[in-house]
Design goal:
Blueprint lengths: L1 H18 L18 H27 L4 E2 L5 E6 L11 E10 L4 E10 L7 H7 L7 E6 L20 E9 L2
Antiparallel strand pairs: 1-2, 2-5, 3-4, 3-6, 5-6
Amino acid sequence: MHKQIQIFLLVLSGFLFFACTKPAPQLPANKNNGSRDLAGDLRKMHEEISEHEDSLLAVYINKSDSTFQKSALGFWYKINKKTAGSLIKHNDKCKISYSIYSLSGEFLGEKLAIIQIGKKETLRGIEEVLKKMRSGEQVSLILPSALAYGMKGDGDKIRAYTSLKIYLEVDLLN
């Protein structure tokens, strides 16, 4: 009888030992083993969105005001007031003021700031157009979303992937 109890306890401890181990984790059935290039997929999606937005902006420009010029970076601009002031360049300190509108004409806000060119203190599209301007000039600017508030928006009135129309004025402070 004593031997039967020992065998029973040995079998019971074996069951308990194997029953308490965790099963190895498994990948969900709808996932692959990382063979997809997520960064490449996101880059391709961003390029498709940018191309579509660019074609929509070209149609908007042709319908509203064909005097805008397109920059190599992808924004559209028109100098409304030309001056003989100094050309804005890297590291210059400037006072900028601008009004922001949706392409449908809805007023979204205005800003006044003192910035230093090259320090990324304002929207990328604004900083890039400033490098084409002279002190005292005024421009109308149409920014694709990638050069404005991008895929996040501003958290208030400007939604994600929103192209903007901006009226910008600059004065050199150096």
